Amino acid sequence: MLLGAIADDFTGASDLANTLAKEGMATTLFVGAGGKAGDCEAGVVALKTRSIPAADAVAQSLYAARWLMDQGCRQFLFKYCSTFDSTPHGNIGPVTEALLDLLGTDIAIVCPAFPATGRRIFMGHLFVGDRLLNESGMQNHPLTPMTDPDLRRFLRLQTKGEVGAIHLDTVRSGPEALSSAFAAERQAGHRLVVTDAIDDDDLRRIGKVATDHRLITGGSGIAIGLPRNFRDKNLLGNKVRPLPVPTGRGAVLCGSCSSMSQKQVADYSRDNPHYALDTGALMAGKLTVSEVTDWVLQNSHANPLVYSTADPGTVSSAQAAFGRDSVATTIERFFGELALALVDSGVRRLVVGGGETSGAVVEALSVRSLRIGAEIDPGVPALATERNGLLGLALKSGNFGAVDFFAKALQQVGTA
Ligand SMILES: Nc1ncnc2c1ncn2[C@@H]1O[C@H](COP(=O)(O)OP(=O)(O)O)[C@@H](O)[C@H]1O
Ligand SMILES: O=C(O)[C@H](O)C(=O)COP(=O)(O)O
């Protein structure tokens, strides 16, 4: 294994694995660290650490990093959300600083840019499309409302040390100038450096200069230029293999409340059976997994949708009534148990919307690794794994995918 990545949620891990596979690295997505790595050139360890206490996120990330070091990795990538999903006391800073210490290195690029999905960084500020982060809808996220687009200022709330910055004009001034800028940041003691990028060429410029950086952090975009560095050193073996195709019934589970997920749920619901989870009934213990499982199986000929997706007002009301963390945990657990019941009842194609939701589903299925297939929409690949036979999955990041994503994904993760 050449490149080892640690992702703070499952859709993000899938998104990064997609980028690395598209750029020609034989990539495996691991559910947690440990066990046999098999024959891959890039390993992405999916964790569910984005919204847990920082100390726990650091411990789990260091365990994963040590496992990747044992697999022989030369370069390490800490992958978080392209919308920098975190909180003022969140985990991106502490995990990055702990990884710098473990890996014995003194600089980490901080670059969540992912232009293919509209995430761009200019003068240290994160844009989603033509909106600043705090006006993009991410300010309404149920767990990590993003209210400050200034990454340097926001990240500094989480770090021990000062946060540096390299702006677009330097990124575009050639490899020597960019290397010198990183050296200057090191000299200034800035171990985390927010680095501008507004298109894929910027990401490839940064990736090329970062060829010897032991640790890099960002969204999946920052990985675009990394496989080329390994190929230029004749380290890649053209090992990418096509994905096996499962056959069987499908279902869609969506716990994401993003603005795009709301559109996707509405679009899919027009032509397919759909079931909206009643959060109040769920919190009162009046809604059971078995009754929803029965409903899905009765409608399984039409690939039904089950969702908790709701508008920000509805989400806020539920959080006020039952507590943010309690609602989140209960809904995630419900989707995990539902997915397990469906797969063990013969469902062979599962499309999941939401990062935390996907983590709950994949962990409930107790699968150890997933293979990466073709990209369905930017940042979302088809995946395959084994549980009672071949299982096709798609783990959709909250705001990723076109409006018709669910129907498209069901067709691309297997056949009916
Ligand atoms: N109707 C709802 N009310 C409150 N919280 C919800 C609701 N539906 C989902 N959630 C919670 O919101 C969070 C959504 O996070 P996630 O699955 O990562 O979606 P995204 O990818 O959009 O960030 C999860 O913890 C989920 O359980
Ligand atoms: O947007 C990204 O970089 C990732 O794919 C991601 O982390 C999305 O997280 P979400 O919770 O699924 O929105």
From TrEMBL:
It catalyses: 3-dehydro-L-erythronate + ATP = 3-dehydro-4-O-phospho-L-erythronate + ADP + H(+); 3-dehydro-D-erythronate + ATP = 3-dehydro-4-O-phospho-D-erythronate + ADP + H(+). It comes from Oryzicola mucosus. Residues 251-406 form the Four-carbon acid sugar kinase nucleotide binding domain. The keyword Secreted does not apply. One of its GO terms (molecular function) is kinase activity. The keyword Nucleotide-binding applies. It comes from the Bacteria. Its EC number is 2.7.1.217. Residues 3-225 form the Four-carbon acid sugar kinase N-terminal domain. Signal peptide: none annotated. InterPro entries: 4-carb_acid_sugar_kinase_N, 4-carb_acid_sugar_kinase_N_sf, NBD_C, NBD_C_sf, OtnK. Catalyzes the ATP-dependent phosphorylation of 3-oxo-tetronate to 3-oxo-tetronate 4-phosphate. It is an enzyme of class 2 (transferase). Keywords: ATP-binding, Carbohydrate metabolism, Kinase, Nucleotide-binding, Transferase. This is 3-oxo-tetronate kinase. Pfam families: NBD_C (PF17042), SBD_N (PF07005). Belongs to the four-carbon acid sugar kinase family.
